Amino acid sequence: MLLAMSQAATATPKETRPTPISRVEKRRRAQADTRPRVTLSFYRYVRIVDPVAFQERLQAAWSEFGCMGRIYVASEGINAQMNVPKVHFEAFDTWTQSQPELAGVPYKIAVEEGDEVSFYKLAIKVKDKIVADGLDDDSFDVTDTGEYLTAAEINQYFDNPDAVIVDMRNSYESEVGHFEGAITPNVETFRDELMITPQTLKIHKNKKIALYCTGGIRCEKASAWLKHNGYAHVKHLKGGIIDYAHQVKAQGLENKFRGKNFVFDSRLGERVGTDIISTCHLCRVNKSDTHYHCLNQICSTFYIGCDNCIKRRAGYCSRRCQLVNKLPAKQKKRMARFYNLRIRPLRKFKKMRLG
Questions:
Q1: Active-site residue 213, yes or no?
Q2: Which residue in the list 67, 213, 280, 309 is annotated as catalytic?
């Protein structure tokens, strides 16, 4: 008894962990921070010996600058989408460019900031790859990428019968915006597109092929993959759609991009072309390119909605979801369990096509 009391008295107290901050609270704090921000993205394929140590280095420095974003780090490099308070941008740039792995890395600055804050927290994650592509990198030369194209150069492809332009993004991205006449594969993931593109482009094998994506990172791997599959004339748009928009404006070029450039942050898109090329998924009549998540959290379907339908459905993707969200909490919990076990695994991408 005395021994137990003695041990209890001398035991080192357990380390107290900080109380986790909820997603709602993080969003509230981010929205309360009204400082102007610069939204940017960048990537680099570079050998990182210790991704965990690199992650910790970035986390410590970028937290001090008030950065928020989603960053993936792997032994093959870094893929970053983030925002930085304007007041700290110079310090952020100086520190970032001073890191051996990031020296000289070019930023792609957002075309427009929009009303919505692009990111609400800083999340730096260590991954196996900086882009999920499903490829065995040891099976081909990933460094043998296609040459870059400028905005002016890719514009020349549009009137060339011996050239084709290929969208290397997912179908929900190209639905709201794409280049005129581009091949837009009906795929839900980049992994899917890499698997089908060599066969899809077979009839164009001897043509000049121009690839494009949001910021350029997917085209790096895609161009090397196509060259490995025998496509000798593959090039890709440097800096992707984001840099294309900046070059068109700066150089007074004709804008060949139609619609909105889908982005993977809270803005969900930035205006590049002035036209709206997609249609509301609810009424299938009105033009719209604004994405929403269904307010029924069990569903959370990602869909395009027009102003009339959003108002009429109160933010839900269907009448069914409106009714489900009014059910008692216990019943909704049982439905959520069933949905997550049986339904969600069958839906790679929850794209809205209900009435």
A1: yes
A2: 213
pLDDT at position 134 over 90:
yes
Which residue ranges form the domains of the chain, and what is each CATH number? 31-126 (3.30.70.100), 137-259 (3.40.250.10), 291-346 (no CATH)
SS3 assignment, position 340:
helix
Binned at pLDDT 50, 70 and 90, residue 343 comes out as low
Q: Which of 144, 125, 116 is nearest to 56 (CA)?
A: 125
Strands annotated E in 53-181: 68-74, 77-85, 108-109, 122-126, 147-149, 163-167, 177-179
Q: 3 by DSSP, 3-state: which?
A: helix
Calpha distance 67→58 (Å, rounded): 10
Query: Does the CA dihedral 102-107-108-111 come out positive or negative?
Result: positive
Give every CB contact of residue 103 below 8 A, 6+ residues apart in sequence.
97
